[in-house]
Amino acid sequence: MSVLLQAKQLEKTYRVGEVETYALRGVDLDVTEGEFTAVAGPSGSGKSTLLHLLAGLDKPSKGEVYLEGERIDTLSIAQLANLRLANFGFVFQAYNLIPVLSALENAAFVLELQGVPKKEREARAMEALTVLDMDQYASRRPNQLSGGQQQRVAVARALASNPSVILADEPTANLDSTTGLALIEHMKRLNEQQGVTFLFSTHDPRLLAHVKRIARVEDGKIVGEDSPQREPELVASGAA
Amino acid sequence: MWLLAWRNIWRKKWRSLLTAFAVGVVVYLTLIYFGMVGASQNGMYQSISQNAGHIQLRVAGYRDIHDFDDLLIDGVASLTEQISSAVTSLNSDIDTELIQDLQVSTALEVPGLLEGDGRSRGIVLQGIDQTDSGRERYAEEYLEAGNLPTPGDLESIALGNKLATALGVDLGDTVYMYAPGTEGYGAAAFTVTGLLNIAGAETFAVSSLLAAQDVGAPEDASRVELYFPNLRRFVDDPVLGAARDQLVGALAEAGVEVDALEVELWREVDPSISSYLASSEGITTVITGLFFVLAGLLVMNTVYLSVMERIKEFGVMIALGTKRRNVVRMMLGESLFICAVGASVGGVLGMVSLWRMAQGFSFPGMEELFVEYGLPATLYASISPDQIVLTVVFTVLTGILAALFPAFTAARLEPVEAMRFSAA
After folding, report:
1. Are B140 and B208 contacting, i.e. CB atoms less than 8 angstroms apart?
2. Around Cβ B345, how many Cβ atoms within 10 Å?
3. B327 and which of A134, B81, B199, B411 could share a cystine (Cβ 3.0–4.6 Å)?
4. Are the CB atoms for B237 and B45 separated by under 8 Å?
5. pLDDT digits 0-9 by tens, A158-175
6. CB contacts < 8 A (A, B)
7. So what's the ipTM on this one?
């Protein structure tokens, strides 16, 4: 498997007045195709910042970011927008669906930005919703869906455009246990059956129990990597 | 993106409708304002042209001539006949409907002294022969009491109401006109048969042409006035230039010595009113622009509020790959749609109101004031195609300019910061 995303000596600092705060301090990370990987750490450790930098949502203060061997941290705002549109799928903690669009329209939103014709994008969006068992809610607006359903629509939106990698920032943080586990199952199945690469930022043990690799971040640094063991209670519950 | 813009408009339905309503009110008021300005222009135009004609013929260089005799057009009757026949050939390049039904009036101005009840005033006696319809219209607009002198009437005179008051005379009283040193009898006695409420009423008296000729200059006149009754709207005035040129050519062909005559349009006779009418258009445009600035601020407030409420959403859209120009386009679409809906409703209502006002309207109780300012009691609204285009352009500009600042604010958002934003 080739390296898809690569971070080299990434640093991110924020300046508030005279005070400079480090969010990341020299992070190196490789993500290969087909991975189901989590960046884990406590709140404020820098895991979300790392995801944002890898996705071109923000620019590093120092260091380099590569996507499929091409350096992307030096690209312009417009180039980064195109790059995100073509290569990344996003799932956010707060779902972040567009409230005035239906589930189907939300799932098709990125495809519309890509200029995919209406019929095709609707078919692909519906296919993504079906994979996530959300096809029966296609015409509903976000406020007519539960949190878990909204997050599944968000995953469908990320999935529909067939991106190189889906970056999910705390995707289960706002979900109850059952819903969270169901979502994890869906994402895991996509990874295993369709080879979709996932990179999470999370400190949710339910999710960490299912990823293949964990990069642990503390105080803006990667302090270690490991492959988790499934927690017995999760296995017993049948969620895994 | 357009679907999104459309749905966003309905997110805060009442706010969008209120903004559209405000734009509609501005468009409606703008059209009515244009119509009212047009009505006052038409009123002044009508008043001036009815009193002095659209085109006047006088002795060449009359402005520099001070001798009464040298101001006279000799044998005016044959000239008026030649004019009437020449006007029938004015049709090419001119909107013929506007210059049909020409009315030719001949007037003689005799300066002199008018005496009544032991008091006297210096006046200019206007001897005018008008057509029946012209006299009727004149009476409707200006006659306060009594009757106007009829053509050939040697006994009757109508006085400006203020002149009558100054002389201490009323209807039925006798006044005496003295005009020594003229070619006529130089004096005459008249019975006051009418009182006029007209601008300049302090020094104004009107008799038949024949009566004035008897006093001052038999068979002669000071001016010939051509009045086109269909030419009532100021916006149609430009046809007069071509009409004048063709008339002069036709008179020359008929053997009239046109070089001895000054053939002037009403605006050349009275440049001050002409320039006032012309300048009022610029002022009208500026005031209309201010209407739209106010409307624009309201639209901007709505669009800006809408951006502030959706900052997180814009952050997500930009994060997903929405181009910033598409964000701008979407906001412009929302603003333009609100403006278009308001403008359509306001525009239709405005045009319907204007159509009704174009049939004639008045302000009961304000007739005196209107006459004081030289306006007829009944006004006719009109709007030019340019003004309609201007209203549309102002509406579109309002929609675009009002949305630009909020739109660029939204487009410049940093996705990470925007997604963290909390409206609370």
Report:
1. no
2. 17
3. B411
4. yes
5. 888 888 888 988 888 777
6. 60
7. 0.84
